[in-house]
Specification:
Elements: E1 2-7, H1 9-15, H2 17-26, E2 31-38, E3 41-44, E4 52-55, E5 58-59, H3 65-68, H4 86-92, E6 96-102, H5 107-112, E7 117-118, E8 127-131, H6 136-150, E9 156-160, H7 178-185, H8 190-198, H9 203-218, H10 230-237, H11 239-265, E10 270-274, H12 276-281, H13 292-295, H14 303-306, E11 312-316, H15 322-336, E12 341-346, H16 356-368, E13 373-376, H17 384-387, H18 390-396
Parallel strand pairs: 1-2, 1-13, 2-6, 6-9, 9-10, 10-11, 11-12, 12-13
Antiparallel strand pairs: 2-5, 3-4, 7-8
Length: 404
């Protein structure tokens, strides 16, 4: 059974490649998943060079000129030498190297080119972090970026944010319910509306209904209660809105298909990560009731369709409960197909795991449910004593890496 630890380039720069790899290889994992392209953030890093690390949007390698020549969007430069020698250092330890790539979450590109970001039902582009997967320039950029990471010689390109993202305002003193927030987060840019129209959807009616409902809440109407389901959404917003939401899946599926083909052409493979598990449980490890695989449609992710196109999937199993981890993994496998590789991504410490035993139970649950790999997120974000739980999770769960 495969395994890896997620690593940021700031970890490698701060502690040194050799030191980081020596520590991780001692855990018994079989590889690392390095953040080759990441988004801006501000993170507490308990054993980092800085204990509060500011990350910037950036691709941490020189982009091949032939891939981006003539494209409107090109990677934001990060630490361009951060990955130098990493592949060779991994090979020396018989470790795999996976290239973690954040595709469509990029405030720098969105601020520079606001027209490529999502546009809400009121016509506003208030989410400059979120590049729209329906925009042709964004799609060309994503394919080129995937090729560029694959050319680093990685065993796989691990794709994050290769789909729509939910609305995440920094402040809101309006009590939007889950369905109101979902409607407010739908993209109604020209390209999304045109694609939906081509699929037989009345996109203008869908947009107007969203604006009417959300605008009503802004004016004092009571927010919607309950979780977002297709049935509840149909009753609340009508069939045109639900049809519009379904059309988003075609946008994502075709983009992921292009990216997967590009990665395969470069001699690597795509691992697609659907962020639904993080949406549901990132903050506290207590995900809302619906399984991630069943709610992925909300981000435009059609797992059944992608199962025919993508060789591997990462399941963000951000939950305290081992049974929930197993249920999420099992639901993914039933959706994408039993012959697909599913990798369970676990957090070894807060807020999901308060002990080694809990982490062990979750690794066991993931394996029993059919996961072929267990990955741990993330090296620089958790204390060393928490990372020291990983060997027990691997060995006691019967997950064998370098120590097998």
């Amino acid at each position: 059974m495969d395994s890896s630890v997620y690593v940021f380039v700031e970890d490698l720069r701060g502690e040194g490649v050799e030191r980081v790899l020596d520590r991780i290889s001692a855990y018994g994992v079989s590889g690392i998943t390095v953040g080759a392209v990441h988004h801006a953030s501000r993170d507490v890093t308990p054993h980092g060079l800085s204990r509060l690390t500011i990350r910037h949007d950036g691709a941490h390698f020189p982009p091949p000129p032939d891939l981006f020549a003539g494209l409107r969007l090109s990677p934001v430069p990060g630490y361009l030498n951060a990955l130098d020698g990493l592949r060779e250092a991994c090979a020396k330890r018989s470790m795999k190297l996976h290239g973690w790539t954040v595709f469509l979450r990029n405030a720098t590109l969105g601020t520079k080119h606001p027209d490529v970001t999502v546009r809400d039902c009121f016509g506003d582009r208030g989410s400059l972090t979120d590049l729209c997967p329906g925009h042709p320039d964004v799609r060309e950029y994503a394919v080129a970026l995937a090729r560029a990471v694959a050319r680093l010689g990685v065993d796989s390109v691990v794709a994050e944010s290769l789909h729509f993202r939910p609305l995440k305002p920094q402040r809101s003193f309006v009590p939007l319910g889950p369905m109101d927030a979902y409607l407010f987060g739908l993209c109604f840019c020209d390209y999304c509306m045109r694609r939906a129209t081509d699929l037989g959807v009345n996109a203008e009616v869908a947009r107007d209904e969203c604006a009417r409902i959300v605008g009503g809440v802004f004016d004092g109407d009571p927010p919607a209660q309950g979780e977002v389901t297709r049935a509840a959404l149909t009753a609340y917003a009508g069939p045109d809105v639900v049809a519009y939401a379904r059309a988003r899946s075609e946008t994502v599926t075709t983009l992921v298909s292009e990216v997967a083909s590009a990665v395969a052409d470069e001699g690597s493979k795509l691992v697609f990560i659907d962020s639904t598990g993080a949406v549901k449980g990132y903050r506290d490890g207590l995900p809302t009731p619906g399984l991630a695989a069943h709610d992925a449609w909300q981000l435009g992710v059609d797992l059944v369709a992608l199962g025919d196109l993508v060789p591997a999937f990462g399941v963000l199993a951000y939950a305290r409960d081992a049974a929930r981890v197993a249920d999420d993994v099992g639901a993914y496998l039933r959706s994408v197909g039993k012959d697909r590789e599913v990798r369970a991504v676990l957090r070894p410490g807060y807020p999901d795991s308060d002990s080694t035993d809990r982490l062990v139970a979750k690794a066991r649950g993931a394996k029993a449910a059919g996961a072929l790999a267990v990955d741990f997120y993330a090296y620089g974000l958790v204390p060393h004593p928490v990372l020291d739980r990983i060997p027990a999770a691997l060995s006691e769960a019967g997950v064998h890496g370098l120590t097998s």
